Amino acid sequence: MNARPARPAGPARRPSGVREVIRYNWPMYAAGAVTAATGWALARHLPARPAALARAASAGAAALLTTSTLATWHVYDRSELHSYDWLSDLLPDGPGDHLVVCTGLDEASRPVAARYPTARQLVADLYDPALTTEGSIRRARRHAPPAPGTVSARPDALPAATGSLDTVLTVLAAHELRRPADRTALFTEAVRTLRPGGTLLLVEHLRDLANTAAYGPGAWHFQPRATWLRHAAEAGLHPAAERRIATLITAFAFRSPAA
Q: pTM score, two decimals?
């Protein structure tokens, strides 16, 4: 199935920064703030040892709120992530005919289209409310609905003809496919749609030491580096380039076999 090109309509929306991330995830931030305040307040009325534990819990919650907020600000407001200056390191010739894959929140299609205005672009949204149940995604979609021309799709049925694309881009989206079978299907479909020597560009937070230090248990929402490498290998893709962005983001360029 072919889709018509999706191009930016009107002024580009401001990409998500720390303000939007807090807006989308406000229940978690509120829970952290309540935990910190409650622990500190309870400590005043408890015996010495329980009071020390309550203060420790309060301090831990406050520290996690602080580090995660600062990390988010650094990545989304201060780094080169949203400028896409890093893209030329991974795609020196540009994305060519490309498909942007998102899972509820698309923040890649507009800046990529603006940077490469002559490239043909398609946009596929894999959002499935029955599977993507996080409240943050629902709130994000209300704030930033899909761009005009976006096609609803499934991981096993991307809206592009076989061998029709130079690049498939998935930016901070693939980790929302929580079922391994869906991630496998996405990689398999990417290979189907790519021309020989085409590129699957995957950009993700990883479940690694840096993200765990910044986000604590929240880093378990991400996948380890080994998971993405395994999915690529199973689909017949090989790593062609890799780049870190603001320490906490990793961009992979996986190449399909040449003819």
A: 0.88
pLDDT tier at 8, thresholds 50, 70, 90:
very low
Both 249 and 214 in a single domain?
Answer: yes
pLDDT tens-digit profile of 83-110?
A: 999 999 999 999 999 999 999 999 899 9
Query: Looking at residue 228, which CATH number applies to its domain?
Result: 3.40.50.150
Element (H, E) at 203: strand 194-205
Give CA separation, 232 vs 122, 141, 156, 218, in Å. Answer: 22, 29, 15, 25
Please give the residue range of the domain that contains residue 178.
Answer: 83-255
Rounded-to-integer distance, Cα 11 and Cα 141, Å: 18
Distance from the first to the final alpha carbon of the chain: 23
136 located within any domain: yes
Identify whether 5 is part of a domain. Answer: no
As a residue count, the chain comes to 259
Structure tokens given for 236? 């017949």
Tell me the three state secondary structure of residue 146. coil
Q: Is the pLDDT of residue 6 over 50?
A: no
